[in-house]
Structures are given as structure tokens and as C-alpha cells.
């Protein structure tokens, strides 16, 4: 009968020297004839499937490895209690005592439990998708009409606000007085205000003093002739500035 040991591995190591000494005691081990055998099997505890390649060790004899059927055997053993230990990749180690009588064959079935491995937390970051709106942004930029600023260009210039960013854009005028600024196109008449679009919608809240920290792209069209259809409005002739923010879907 195979009796699993419920002691810690470190304690088992302390048991082994004592067992070795008992096996070497004159009149006990030496007097016994080596006529016992062990023919066992190692199985998965849950599925009952055989475990091939498991290593079975026993004190005083060479270790053996289970075959494709999970079987192993030891021969020419002396009768008594033998300490067996079984190891297999992906399984919890098993150890226990097996009683074998002289001249008999013990047939233990050893069940192993699959080891649960707790992996350290792994964070998988999916590449950020800029979505269809930025595909359209890049398509319009490739057509060469208007002026464009990408997120990288905005961050490189580090402007305080929209007016600060557009000071160097050809054909754009920024008139500032104190904290108030006004943006207009050089070719437009005085009093002709630029139309602002924010994330594809006409907006009256966005203006020259708006900070750039949440802006991911900007399109500037100087007049109606170069403004694409999606931004044509009643005042497109005064110029259009389309803003794309990071928070938009």
C-alpha cells in the first residue's frame, strides 16, 4: 500500500539519512533477501491519464522513468517500507511510503495533481487605434490642400494655445490684444470670422485661446475653394479650422 507523506519537503530530507542508517543496520537489512518487486503506474489525478516521463526515485537504487503508459518498476528489493518520490513536469511532487513483502510484487497506483502556476501580472497593451476619423485626416493631408498639424508636430512646438501655434502658418493672421486673440485668414475680409469644427462638428466654444494639451490634429483651410465637402458651411469662405481631440471616439 502506497501511503503519501504529508510532511514538508525539508522534513523529508531529514528522514532520508535515518532511513539510510536503518537499511544498513546489520542483521536487519543485510539478512533480508532481495526478492521483492514494485510494478507501479503514475496517473493524472483528475483525468486518470497516464503520465509519461515522470521520475520515480527510491533510496538505495537507481531512479527510473515512467514509459508511455505511465508504468515503472523496481526489482530485486528487500521487503519492508520503502520511501518513493515521484516528480513530473507540470505536476506537484508526490512522496510516500510503500510496504513490500519479501518475495511479493507491489502494484501501487500513484496519482499526481497538476501544479497551479501563478504567473506575475502581465500587462498587454494593445496598440492605440486612431480610428477612422484619423484615416480621413491622413487622406485629406495627402491631398495637399490646406495646412495640417499632427500630434507630434504640436507637441514639438509646445504652443500655449491655438493662436500661438498658428503664428507661423502662411496665410493666417493672429491679432492679439491682452489675453484675447482673433484668428483670420489673410485673404478674407475684415470681420469675416473663421469657422471652427471640433471632432467633426461645428463649434462656437473653441477659440484662439484654447490650450493644445488635448488636441491630436489640426486642419487649416484658407478659403472655400480648398475646403473639403465635410467642412463646407455658410461661412467657409472665411476659412475653416478643424480640431481633433484625443477624447473623441
Major sheet: arrangement of strands:
1-7-6-3-4
Q: What order do the SSEs take from the amino end to the carboxyl end, as H and E?
A: EHEEEEEEEEHEHHEEEEEE
- Please tell me the overall pLDDT: 81
CATH architecture of the largest domain: Beta Complex
CATH class value of the largest domain? Mainly Beta
- Work out the count of structural domains: 2
Task: Describe how the helices and strands are arranged.
Layout: E1 2-4, H1 9-23, E2 34-44, E3 55-58, E4 61-65, E5 71-78, E6 80-87, E7 94-100, E8 105-106, E9 109-112, H2 131-143, E10 147-150, H3 151-157, H4 162-166, E11 172-177, E12 180-185, E13 195-198, E14 201-203, E15 215-221, E16 240-245
Parallel strand pairs: 2-8, 2-9, 13-16
Antiparallel strand pairs: 1-7, 2-5, 3-4, 3-6, 6-7, 10-15, 11-12, 13-14, 15-16
Detailed description of the structure:
This protein has 249 residues and is an alpha+beta fold. It is built from 4 helices and 16 strands. The chain has 2 domains: 111 residues, Immunoglobulins (Immunoglobulin-like), CATH 2.60.40; 115 residues, Ferric Hydroxamate Uptake Protein, Chain A, domain 1. The chain is 16% helix and 35% strand. The strands form 4 sheets. A 5-stranded antiparallel β-sheet has the order 1-7-6-3-4, with no helix packed on it. The longest helix has 15 residues. It starts with a strand and ends with a strand.
Amino acid at each position: 500500500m502506497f501511503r503519501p507523506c504529508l510532511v514538508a519537503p525539508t522534513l523529508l530530507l531529514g528522514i532520508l539519512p535515518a532511513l539510510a542508517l536503518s537499511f544498513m543496520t546489520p542483521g536487519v537489512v543485510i539478512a533480508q533477501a532481495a526478492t521483492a518487486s514494485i510494478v507501479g503506474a503514475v496517473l493524472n489525478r483528475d483525468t486518470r491519464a497516464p503520465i509519461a516521463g515522470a521520475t520515480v526515485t527510491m533510496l538505495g537504487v537507481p531512479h527510473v522513468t515512467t514509459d508511455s503508459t505511465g508504468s515503472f518498476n523496481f526489482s530485486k528489493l528487500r521487503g519492508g517500507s520503502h520511501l518513493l518520490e515521484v516528480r513530473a513536469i507540470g505536476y506537484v511532487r508526490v512522496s510516500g511510503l510503500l510496504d513490500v513483502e519479501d518475495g511479493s510484487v507491489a502494484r501501487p497506483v500513484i496519482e499526481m495533481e497538476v501544479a497551479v502556476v501563478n504567473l506575475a501580472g502581465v500587462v498587454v497593451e494593445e496598440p492605440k487605434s486612431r480610428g477612422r476619423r484619423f484615416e480621413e485626416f491622413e487622406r485629406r493631408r495627402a491631398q495637399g490642400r490646406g495646412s495640417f498639424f499632427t500630434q507630434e508636430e504640436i507637441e514639438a512646438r509646445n504652443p500655449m494655445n491655438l493662436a500661438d501655434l498658428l503664428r507661423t502658418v502662411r496665410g493666417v493672421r493672429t491679432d492679439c490684444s491682452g489675453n484675447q486673440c482673433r484668428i483670420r485668414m489673410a485673404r478674407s475680409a475684415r470681420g469675416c470670422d473663421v469657422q471652427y469644427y471640433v471632432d467633426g462638428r461645428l463649434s462656437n466654444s473653441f477659440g484662439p485661446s484654447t490650450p493644445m494639451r488635448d488636441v491630436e490634429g489640426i486642419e487649416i483651410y484658407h478659403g472655400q475653394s480648398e475646403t473639403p465637402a465635410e467642412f463646407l458651411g455658410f461661412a467657409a469662405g472665411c476659412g475653416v479650422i478643424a480640431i481633433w481631440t484625443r477624447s473623441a471616439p
